[in-house]
Amino acid sequence: LEAMSSLLVTGGAGFIGSNFVHYVVQHTDHDVVVLDSLTYAGDEASLAGLPADRVRLVVGDVADAEQVDPLVAAADAVVHYAAESHNDNSLADPSAFLQTNIVGTYTLLEAARKHGTRFHHISTDEVYGDLELDDPEKFTPETPYNPSSPYSSTKAGSDLLVRAWVRSFGVEATISNCSNNYGPRQHVEKFIPRQITNLLDGVRPRLYGEGLNVRDWIHADDHSAAVLRILEAGRIGETYLIGADGEVNNREVIETILTEMGRSADDFDHVRDRPGHDMRYAIDAAKLREELGWEPQFTDFRSGLRDTIAWYRDNESWWRGQKAEVEAKYAKAGH
Ligand code: NAD
Ligand code: TDX
């Protein structure tokens, strides 16, 4: 990737995609075109304050070949974040997950093939299934795929399409599988923002089951830095795992949020567990660290959470409109 390139960022009005766009504007000379259909999870407000001469939003669907084709043709690289991203939604109705995650990725790959455009595919550690709490091994790029949910199975399918388009058609693609992200602008349906905004509303946090499930938390900015390194120096056809050794169980996350917000650590409720709930994710990021020299900057989870809490406190107008509908959906599912 040259120093002043034009990036097509799909899903750039969502959580991780918008953090990537902000990061690119701050840390590089690249221009960005965001392609985003502004589903319930996308918000133009997440791109507010960015320079209009460097960032342009195109509202459109990644599965719409006619719209995708000229955008991919004009880009130096595609960074593909757009997806249906929430496990609980995929359990309630998987159809949009197949359409966006599978058909959308296929549509972009076909355009990248036609125009010879560099392609980076954003994926998740959930494609590997889950680990036992006491398993000494973490996920590596060699771990066999074994997804559990409709969401993770469609992400796994999209990864396999990318691999096949590299091998069969010579598409210049890379893949990254990242662990759980946290930070500003995450939809309030997700675990950490849901609990923070519940507490701001005077509602007790909601822990699924016993809450011993472990997630490997990484700040969204560390994810963005890793993706930029892969765009600059990653080897075509390779898969890089992104993670910052941030394993914490859900109960400890809730306790940390509670104490950071001045509440007693046991001031939460246990609610119905998620069907098929993955026990533990853990990433071995040795390849990314050793080959590309990436290191995480946010290594203190409590202080990263404190900043995230402050962001939600200061930006109620960003999340308020999401909250009632999300909680109504959760009430229906017993969560
Ligand atoms: P998000 O739900 O916050 O954002 C998704 C964005 O994609 C939204 O702006 C939405 O409007 C857009 N979108 C959805 N369908 C679209 C379509 N058909 N056409 C165009 N745009 C569409 O998701 P996120 O948490 O930011 O995740 C972004 C990517 O990162 C996803 O591919 C996800 O699988 C991956 N990922 C997420 C995490 C995590 O912890 N959240 C971890 C690893 C990987
Ligand atoms: O209210 C809750 N209480 C609770 O205990 C919610 C919403 C979640 N949970 C639990 C379920 C999970 O063990 O917290 C953990 C995190 O839940 P989510 O935020 O839904 O994330 P997860 O299912 O782990 O998936 C996330 O990380 C990987 C992203 O949503 C995916 O897009 C990404 O691929």
Automatic annotation (TrEMBL):
One family name in Pfam for this protein: GDP_Man_Dehyd
Keywords, comma-separated and alphabetical: Lyase, NAD
Cofactor(s) demanded: NAD(+)
InterPro entries found in the cross-reference section: dTDP_Gluc_deHydtase, NAD(P)-bd_dom, NAD(P)-bd_dom_sf
Keyword NAD: yes
Gene3D superfamilies xref list: NAD(P)-binding Rossmann-like Domain, UDP-galactose 4-epimerase, domain 1
EC number: 4.2.1.46
Annotated family: Belongs to the NAD(P)-dependent epimerase/dehydratase family. dTDP-glucose dehydratase subfamily.
Protein name per UniProt: dTDP-glucose 4,6-dehydratase
